[in-house]
């Protein structure tokens, strides 16, 4: 299948695209930019694909269009009758909200769909905890199992495609194993159980997570591959506390202790940072292609710079193997 797109870099091309975009009940959205979504970052391109036949892809050049032209684009993104489908839309929404005063509602985030369906696909607690390693120390997870039981590791888009065995003739971010389609029973990829009505509400909460402030580039408590708490599950706690790490207001059950007011996610991040500070870094082994033990500069030179994410976790290949697309950390 050939993938084609229309570049919208002037008023004429955009006007033609807007008619198609407004009539589509669903839009698939992705953005690119310089340090997209973080403080000091900027938006460059918005990719919009329609769900209505014939499906069309439009690339909106934010830098080339005038402010009045962009108002019409952002109005489409804010339209409550059009469902916007994204994969980890937190950075996209942060760029829209803080840079262009745009609020997306009626959202479905496929990264959230992936996490929410793991139990349906047979994932138990051991598998859930297993995903956390090596981002978190396996030894520490085993010794503090209760503190990690609420944590879910997020996957990159390419890893999600592979795990769900999605048929794809366009994806070029890495090989997708099609042999799994010979297995029985078939995976329930297209089961109606996958997407329930509550996921749209939770997706809005997820993508709008950083509406209070765009994350700083070195914010280790907000920029990490762990699902923030109270997105998929809303606690019944009446008492609430402000986490001193991620600065979110959360229920009592999201904290290991009230005497140390950090949520389970930030508590685990602290444990990781303390472990790295107390363990001397080994010498790099470039002859094997391994980045384990490389310092920040060496890792950036090896994998490519990715400034919108913090550098605190750039010491182990495993930290990024499920978070960034294959081929390095040059893109989200």
From TrEMBL:
<keyword id="KW-0269">Exonuclease</keyword>
<dbReference type="GO" id="GO:0006139">
    <property type="term" value="P:nucleobase-containing compound metabolic process"/>
</dbReference>
<dbReference type="InterPro" id="IPR012337">
    <property type="entry name" value="RNaseH-like_sf"/>
</dbReference>
<dbReference type="GO" id="GO:0003676">
    <property type="term" value="F:nucleic acid binding"/>
</dbReference>
<dbReference type="Pfam" id="PF01612">
    <property type="entry name" value="DNA_pol_A_exo1"/>
</dbReference>
<dbReference type="InterPro" id="IPR036397">
    <property type="entry name" value="RNaseH_sf"/>
</dbReference>
<dbReference type="GO" id="GO:0008408">
    <property type="term" value="F:3'-5' exonuclease activity"/>
</dbReference>
<dbReference type="InterPro" id="IPR002562">
    <property type="entry name" value="3'-5'_exonuclease_dom"/>
</dbReference>
<feature type="domain" description="3'-5' exonuclease">
    <location>
        <begin position="9"/>
        <end position="112"/>
    </location>
</feature>
<keyword id="KW-0540">Nuclease</keyword>
<keyword id="KW-0378">Hydrolase</keyword>
<protein>
    <submittedName>
        <fullName>3-5 exonuclease and kh-i domain-containing protein</fullName>
    </submittedName>
</protein>
């Amino acid at each position: 299948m050939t993938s084609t797109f229309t570049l919208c870099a002037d008023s004429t091309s955009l006007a033609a695209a807007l008619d198609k975009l407004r009539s589509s009940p669903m839009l698939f959205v992705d953005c690119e930019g310089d340090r997209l979504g973080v403080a000091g970052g900027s938006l460059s391109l918005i990719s919009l694909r329609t769900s209505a036949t014939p499906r069309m892809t439009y690339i909106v050049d934010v830098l080339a269009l005038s402010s009045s032209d962009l108002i019409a684009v952002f109005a489409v993104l804010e339209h409550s009758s059009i469902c916007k489908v994204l994969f980890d839309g937190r950075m996209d929404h942060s760029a829209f909200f803080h840079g262009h005063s745009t609020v997306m509602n009626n959202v479905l985030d496929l990264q959230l769909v992936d996490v929410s369906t793991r139990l349906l696909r047979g994932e138990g607690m051991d598998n859930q905890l297993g995903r956390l390693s090596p981002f978190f120390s396996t030894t520490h997870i085993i010794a503090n199992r209760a503190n990690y039981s609420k944590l879910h590791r997020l996957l990159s888009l390419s890893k999600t495609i592979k795990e769900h065995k999605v048929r794809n003739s366009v994806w070029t971010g890495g090989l997708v194993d099609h042999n799994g389609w010979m297995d029985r029973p078939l995976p329930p990829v297209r089961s109606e159980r996958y997407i329930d009505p509550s996921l749209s509400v939770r997706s809005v909460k997820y993508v709008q997570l950083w509406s209070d402030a765009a994350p700083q580039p070195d914010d280790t408590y907000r920029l990490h591959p762990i699902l923030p708490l109270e997105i998929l599950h809303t606690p019944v706690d009446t008492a609430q506390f402000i986490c001193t790490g991620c600065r979110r207001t959360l229920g009592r059950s999201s904290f290991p202790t009230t005497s140390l007011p950090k949520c389970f996610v930030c508590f685990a991040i602290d444990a990781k940072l303390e472990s790295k500070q107390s363990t001397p870094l080994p010498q790099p082994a470039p002859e094997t292609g391994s980045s384990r033990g490389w310092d920040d500069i060496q890792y950036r030179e090896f994998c490519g710079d990715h400034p919108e994410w913090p550098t605190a976790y750039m010491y182990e290949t495993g930290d990024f193997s499920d978070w960034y697309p294959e081929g390095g950390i040059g893109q989200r």
